[in-house]
């Protein structure tokens, strides 16, 4: 596998009982890009992210993350991944700083000074420096979302897996999220971000359109629109979804 | 006020119950189980015979009949007691182990004294660590003796003496307690179990609810995607809640001893050690059972299942020795039974840690097993 791919899958599949959440799922994520997973609810985005985060076992097929096959390479990969689940996953009765401190410790940052530097950096990045001492339950929904992102960042991961990070986030905050992502990309961090909102796609370097556990198309927005012969991503999605029965890509 | 709006709420609540099969089951079945257990525990005890060990050293002079025999015969015929004849040492051991509820000791001059002094001493040996049990056994035995014996004795004695028994039997009951003392109150016996029960109950509830939050608030998902292992999570909880609960338990024990002035013969340190083990088991059990609750309400529903049977079967209300075999096995599987036993041993009987060793080992074993179950219950597909 070329080192340029941070995630690469081959015929990845995952079933939950009789339901196939992922089916012949093939994609490759390049180092340092922001890669979008775009698809409706229930299309398999979360399942893919959870497999890549080492939380689920594939039913069949292969997935390599940061050069290690999963789940067998989990121990080597996990510390280098930052995962932001769809639920906030924050301790409501801790302050913002304490939440970050906990996750920094869990990920092995034992030096107090370095930990503080990491926490301050993460807080500044999401614009919560002035609320560091506030209890999480007193924070607004948008602030919690930002804190949740900061918790995924605090151990300086090479790969960020963000499950619908902008759901319920107002447009202004959403823009600042995407600015963070750009800044992280420049530092060499690879970001995989799922969304069911078409208009977020423009912001990704490349994206995969996903439907019913399968990848309909991968590429930049113009590439996908061109391939589908559509004028917008939305119509491209509908066109690809309609013609996908065995149609050559 | 509109009836249809009220009914809308009523119907909604009923629909919710129907969807939550477990709550429904708990509401309908668990009260019956608990009530059944309560009924069984108390009824079985009442129907049981009092086990009396008789030590008959009575050796009358001049060929007189042994009056002690008459008393024992009367007791046996009452149908309320089961009499076993033993030596003095055997009788003590039997009372100590709980096989016999009381021992009656007739001294060698029992008959002679009744003849000569018109009164005689009867020694009654009770275990004493449970004042309620001791008092009940004493009351029952003396009532039987007083009620049944005078008539029998009257017929055997010279007319001149029989008037003595008109007012009852001239026996001086000399009570020997193996443990405790006459100043021993029910509180002294209740206190050990109360300490164990409170610490177990509060820690269990605290851990299960906060671990449940870990699962429902998505933080467990984050932990699962981190390098922390399942065992590390359990041990971290154990230390965190353990430290907190040990503080709580220490305050509770000191309060019981120094403010409530509960008698404690053994060492305070030993009491803290036993309660500490109880707390560790409770933390682990809380983590384990939280896996089977979807919300806080369901976590609270574990109380009647986990807590109440332990309370009833801990040996406080019904001594283990008196239980039928299968129930004793159930009781032995419960940490509070061992905790109660170990704490009574230390606080009331003044035994040391070594003598309470079986209880300590059982509590430690329970904590380890519950810990393994807790680690197992932290489900993560990818280990």
How many domains would you count in the coordinates of chain B?
Answer: 2
**DSSP strand (E) fraction of chain A?**
15-25%
Cα(first) to Cα(last) distance of chain A is 23 Å
Rounded mean pLDDT of chain B is 82
Quaternary state of the chains? heterodimer
The general outline of chain B is elongated
CATH class of the largest domain in chain A: Alpha Beta
Order of helices and strands of chain B: HHEHEHEHEHHEHHHHHHHHH
What CATH architecture of the largest domain in chain A would you give? 3-Layer(aba) Sandwich
Characterize this entry briefly.
The complex is a heterodimer of chains A (249) and B (383). Chain A is of the alpha/beta class and 249 residues long.
Question: Which helices and strands, and how do they pair?
Answer:
The complex is a heterodimer of chains A (249) and B (383).
Chain A: E1 5-16, E2 19-25, E3 28-30, E4 34-38, H1 45-52, E5 60-65, E6 68-69, H2 74-77, E7 81-84, H3 96-106, H4 112-125, H5 141-153, E8 159-162, H6 171-186, E9 190-195, E10 206-211, E11 214-219, H7 221-228, H8 233-243
Parallel strand pairs in A: 4-9, 4-10, 7-8, 8-9
Antiparallel strand pairs in A: 1-2, 1-3, 1-5, 5-6, 10-11
Helix pairs in contact in A: 3-4, 3-5, 4-5, 7-8
Chain B: H1 3-19, H2 21-47, E1 50-56, H3 67-77, E2 81-85, H4 88-97, E3 102-106, H5 110-117, E4 120-126, H6 131-156, H7 159-162, E5 171-177, H8 186-216, H9 219-224, H10 230-259, H11 268-290, H12 296-300, H13 302-313, H14 325-332, H15 335-347, H16 357-377
Parallel strand pairs in B: 1-2, 1-3, 4-5
Antiparallel strand pairs in B: 3-4
Helix pairs in contact in B: 2-13, 3-6, 8-10, 8-11, 8-15, 10-11, 10-16, 11-15, 11-16, 15-16
Can you tag this structure with a few keywords?
heterodimer, A: 249 residues, alpha/beta, Rossmann fold, 2 domains, 6-stranded mixed beta sheet, 5-stranded antiparallel beta sheet, 8 helices, 34% helix, B: 383 residues, 8% strand
């Amino acid at each position: 596998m070329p080192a340029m791919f941070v995630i690469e899958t081959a015929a990845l599949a995952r079933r939950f009982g009789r339901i196939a959440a992922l089916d012949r799922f093939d994609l490759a994520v390049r180092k340092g890009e922001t890669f979008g997973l775009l698809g409706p609810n229930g299309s398999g985005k979360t399942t893919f992210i959870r497999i890549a985060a080492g939380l689920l076992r594939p039913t069949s097929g292969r997935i390599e993350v940061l050069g290690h096959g999963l789940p067998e390479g989990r121990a080597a990969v996990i510390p280098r991944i930052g995962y932001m689940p769809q639920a906030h996953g924050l301790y409501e009765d801790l302050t913002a700083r304490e939440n970050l401190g906990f996750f920094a410790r869990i990920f092995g940052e034992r030096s107090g000074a370095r930990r503080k530097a990491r926490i301050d950096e993460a807080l500044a990045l999401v614009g919560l420096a002035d609320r560091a001492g506030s209890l999480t339950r007193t924070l607004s929904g948008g602030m919690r979302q930002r804190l949740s992102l900061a918790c995924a960042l605090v151990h300086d991961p090479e790969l960020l897996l963000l499950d619908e990070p902008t759901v319920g986030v107002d447009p202004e905050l959403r823009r600042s999220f995407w600015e963070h992502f750009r800044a992280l990309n420049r530092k060499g961090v690879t970001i995989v971000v799922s969304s069911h909102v078409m208009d977020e796609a423009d912001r990704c370097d490349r994206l995969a359109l996903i439907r019913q556990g399968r990848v309909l198309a991968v590429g930049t927005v113009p590439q996908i629109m061109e391939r589908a012969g559509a004028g917008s991503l939305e119509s491209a999605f509908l066109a690809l979804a309609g013609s996908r029965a065995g149609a050559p890509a | 006020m509109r009836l249809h709006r009220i009914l809308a709420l009523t119907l909604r609540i009923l629909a919710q119950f129907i969807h939550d099969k477990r709550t429904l089951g708990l509401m309908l079945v668990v009260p019956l189980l608990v009530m059944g257990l309560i009924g069984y525990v108390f009824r079985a005890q009442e129907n049981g015979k009092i086990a009396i060990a008789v030590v008959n050293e009575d050796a009358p002079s001049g060929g007189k009949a042994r009056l002690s025999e008459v008393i024992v015969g009367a007791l046996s015929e009452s149908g309320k007691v089961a009499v076993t004849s033993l030596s003095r040492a055997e009788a003590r051991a039997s009372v100590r182990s709980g096989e016999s509820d009381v021992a009656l000791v007739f001294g060698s001059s029992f008959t002679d004294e009744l003849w000569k002094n018109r009164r005689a001493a009867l020694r009654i040996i009770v275990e004493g660590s449970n004042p309620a049990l001791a008092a009940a056994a004493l009351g029952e035995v003396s009532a039987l003796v007083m009620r049944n014996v005078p008539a029998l004795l009257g017929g055997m004695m010279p007319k001149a003496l029989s008037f003595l028994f008109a007012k009852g039997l001239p026996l001086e009951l000399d009570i020997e307690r193996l443990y405790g003392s006459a100043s021993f109150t029910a509180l002294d016996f209740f206190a050990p179990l109360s300490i164990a029960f409170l610490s177990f109950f509060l820690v269990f509830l605290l851990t299960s609810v906060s671990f449940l939050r870990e699962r429902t608030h998505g933080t467990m998902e984050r932990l699962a995607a981190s390098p922390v292992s399942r065992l590390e999570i359990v041990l971290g909880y154990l230390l965190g809640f353990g430290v907190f609960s040990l503080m709580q338990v220490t305050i509770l024990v000191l309060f019981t001893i120094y403010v409530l002035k509960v008698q404690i013969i053994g060492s305070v340190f030993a009491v803290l050690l036993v309660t500490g083990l109880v707390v560790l088991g409770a933390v682990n059990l809380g983590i384990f059972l939280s896996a089977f609750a979807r919300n806080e309400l369901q976590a609270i529903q574990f109380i009647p299942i986990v807590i109440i049977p332990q309370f009833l079967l801990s040996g406080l209300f019904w001594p283990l020795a008196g239980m039928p075999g299968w129930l004793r096995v159930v009781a032995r599987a419960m940490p509070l039974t061992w905790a109660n036993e170990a704490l009574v041993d230390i606080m009331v009987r003044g035994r040391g840690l070594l003598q309470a060793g079986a209880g300590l080992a059982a509590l430690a074993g329970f904590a380890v097993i519950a810990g393994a179950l807790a680690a197992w219950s932290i489900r993560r597909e990818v280990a």
